[in-house]
Amino acid sequence: MPSHERLVAYAHGRVQGVGFRVYVKRMASMMGVRGVVYNQKDGSVHVIAEATPHVLDEFEAVLSVGSPAAQVERLDVEREKATGEFSRFTVHR
Prior knowledge:
By secondary structure, the protein is α+β, with helices and mostly antiparallel strands.
């Protein structure tokens, strides 16, 4: 079984108030990604996701485009060792 990694991302641009978090959760659930997404006070959206490296590559591509109404101007991404702390993908309010 392939090992899991953690993706930590910050999406910048028009990403709040445009359905971005709900879209990310829907896509994560479809792709088998576990983690959390939430808004930041600076207007960005923070995503923590765990899955296999291949799935995270695809998920990162989803994040870089975002929901139909979003306009992702920059996506800052780091990869780390997975912790296994998530049992599903959630939206934190």
